[in-house]
C-alpha cells in the first residue's frame, strides 16, 4: 500500500513528486494516467522522464491491479466479477443495469467481521480490509467490461464503516475530477450501523449518501439476526443518525431485509414507523436472498407488500427491491456464497 501509487490521493502524489524534486505537473500526470487512463505500470506514464520512472520503480513503487478470476452474467443484465487479491483472498463486485444507471456494488473487505446470520459474506472467515486501490480497481475493471459506471454502492462484501479510512480514501479518489469524477451524490455507503463511525462520517468533508441496514424494529429481534445489534442498541444508532442528519441535512435510506416470520409482521412495521419518527428516511425492503446453510426464509410477496403499505401510509417512501442476479448468486447477501462449504 505504501508503495502502491493507485492507493494515493491527488495531494499525496504531489507530495511524492515534490520529495523527488519533480514538478507538481508530474503528480498530475501520475493521477491522470492511473485513474483516467488506466495505466497499470509506471513505465506507461510516458510524460514522466525515463529517469524518474526508473527511480520510482527502483524504490519499489508500483500500480496495483486486481486479478480478474471469473465473470458471471445473469440474463437480467447483472454481472458478477470475482477478483483475486495478492494474498490469495477473493472478493466479488456486482454491476447492476437499471435504465440509464450503470451501478457497481463494490466490496470493502475480504469477508466481514459482523457475522450477520442472514448474510453469506458474514459466514466467511474475515480475511482483511481492502486497500483504497483494491476498491477503486473494482470500478476500473468493471468499466473496462461494462462501460462507464454512473453510480456506486458500497454494499458488496464487508462493512464499509469498519474500514473507514480506506473507504473514504477510495471515494476521494473516485470522486476526483482529475480521475473518474463519480459524483458524490451518486455514491452510497451502506452500513450495519456503527454509531461512532456514522458520527465520524457526518463530520467528514466528503459526504456520500448513507444507507443503514436496520432489519428489525427492536433490539430483541435485531440482536438475534446481527451480532452488532448486541453491541450497539437501536437507540444508540438512531441517536447517531439524528446527529448525522442535523449536520448533513441528508435523507437516509433504511434497508430492511424481509425474513419470514421473524421481522415481517404488521406489528413490526408499526414499531418501525415509530422508531423512524425522528428521522427523514426512505426505506428499501429487500426480499431475503437464499444461500446454502441460511436458516431463514424470505417473506411472501403478499407480506412484503402489506409491510410496505404501512410504511408508505405513514409517509415513508418505500421501495421493494427486486431480486437481481440470483441465478449467479450476485443478489444482496449472496456474495461469497459459492465459497461456503
Ligand atoms: N455491510 C454493509 C454493506 C454490505 S451488505 C451492510 O450490512 O449494510 C449489503 C446489504 O445486503 C445490506 O443491507 C444487508 O443487510 C443486505 N443483505 C445481507 N444478506 C442478505 C440476504 N441474504 N438477502 C437480502 N439482503 C441481504
Ligand atoms: Fe457484513 Fe453487511 Fe453481511 Fe452483516 S450484512 S455480515 S455487515 S456484509
What does this structure look like?
Helix 1 crosses helix 2, helix 5 crosses helix 6 and helix 7 runs parallel beside helix 10 (234-248). This protein folds into two domains: 5-58, DNA polymerase, domain 1 (Orthogonal Bundle), CATH 1.10.150; 67-339, Alpha-Beta Barrel (TIM Barrel), CATH 3.20.20.70. It is α/β, with parallel strands linked by helices. Strands 1-2-3-4-7-8-9-10-11-12 form a ten-stranded mixed beta sheet, with helices on one face. It is globular and about 70 Å long. Strand 7, helix 6 and strand 8 (187-191) form a beta-alpha-beta unit. 35% of the residues lie in helices and 19% in strands. It binds S-adenosyl-L-homocysteine and iron/sulfur cluster. Residues 118-119, 155, 159, 190-192, 213, 255, 257, 286, 288-289, 332-333 line the site of S-adenosyl-L-homocysteine.
Could you name the key traits of this structure?
DNA polymerase, domain 1, 2 domains, two-stranded antiparallel ribbon, ten-stranded mixed beta sheet, binds iron/sulfur cluster, TIM Barrel, 12 helices, alpha/beta, 341 residues, binds S-adenosyl-L-homocysteine
